[in-house]
Amino acid sequence: MHWKITVALACSFGVIKKFRLGSPFLTSFLKADKNFTSAQVYGEIYPFWTYSNFLALIPILVLTDLVRYKPIVALEAVSLVACWLLLVFGTTLGQMQLMQICFGISTASGIAYNTYLYAVVHKKHYKKVTSYLRMATMVGKFLAFCAGQVLISTGIVDFMLLNQLTLLVSSSLIPIVLLLPMPKKQQKDEIVDNNKLPTEQQQQNDVLLGRNLNEIDQHKLDGMDDNKNNNGEQFDAKKTLDQFEIEQPKSVHWTDMRSIWTKIKTKFLAPYQNRIVFHWSLYSIVITAMLYQVQNYIQNLWDFHRKADEREWNGFVESINTLLNTLVVFLAQFVSLKWAEYRSVVVCSVSTMSMAWLLYAMVHFDSLFADYILYIVLYMFYNTLNAISSNLIATHLSPNGAYGLVFGINSFVALLLQSVVTLLIVDVNGAFALSLEAQFVTYSICMLASSFALPALQLLVKCGKK
Prior knowledge:
This protein is mostly helical. The chain has helices spanning about 5-15, 25-30, 40-45, 45-65, 70-90, 95-115, 125-155, 160-170, 175-180, 190-195, 200-210, 210-225, 240-270, 275-305, 315-330, 340-365, 370-395, 405-425, 435-465. Helix 12 (about 210-225) packs across helix 18 (about 405-425). It is globular, with a radius of gyration of 24 Å.
């Protein structure tokens, strides 16, 4: 299959998987059509997405490269269809929890979609397909949110029909994924050659979508490269069998163990020995985890603050949010980040403090219209800060640093932190099980704490050097 056809199919997949007409009105649908209470929605149903996303991500990270991407992309499609089948036809609390589990698996499987095209197109097209994939998902979200809002506002459809249409559209993902070609297993020389990208282009590609899975596969190959003994001497095929049997116990076990530990230190731990990478990774993890929580429960807050006679504009707000933040991410690439280190710390600390106040203001004003405005501004701050932190981390990694691996680890830890926060303060069976507004106040406090944490870390490091 020609690579352009493959890219077109992959982009179609991206548009359709994000074309979820009913997403902006999910909370309202669960309450109005499924007769669940607000406490059940945010305390007993939504937490299952966080848990399943985190738990599914672990095996998916391991298996994606081994099974060559397409089966995991297929898993994403099937999970998404199963999610909407349960949402439309399910009636019990257990079925809604299973619906969120399917959605969590689908979300975790998205990593395969983000890296699939790197395995089927030539390296010279990497930058181009990266842009195509990002735009495909953005277009899908924008069109879905706009269409959903228009259909609901005009009264053409109700919430149930909106989700039935989403199910129908999502079902087309399965034939598309069947048409996608299976990536061929790359030869060792081809993989090595693919890693010889110019440093700047490689950095851009890795930061945008990550290539940690391919890098892990490459590390496995490197560990098998060159049959050498413990002394680094080339293996001689003419040695006698007796000589080989004597040397083998000395080289196989301990060399493998040392090799594994060396790879762990160099590939997983070494990048974080750079204090800027460590500090900004920690900062990024905290704000990302908090914004994940906001995204997951913002509809509940909107519904809580909506008066009986107020109309929902969730779809319109989400479409504007998607459009503005796409513009923010695009413009961020033109912003010079060659600042003195203290300036970047001050800017991001002040910005994070502003985000904390925005979250608190959502609770304080008790107004749906104010919530909408504050939500959009909050995400503009977040995407700007995320772009700054990503660039600072990337520019302070070594030229041959594992960019995708570092950002993959950061995302994984952020999801772990989100799971802990959900278990402690959101889950109805959690330690605190806070009320909805108390949860958002907690997120605000965490944001405020992180705005002081980074400068404090910088100060401690400087004092330690003295």
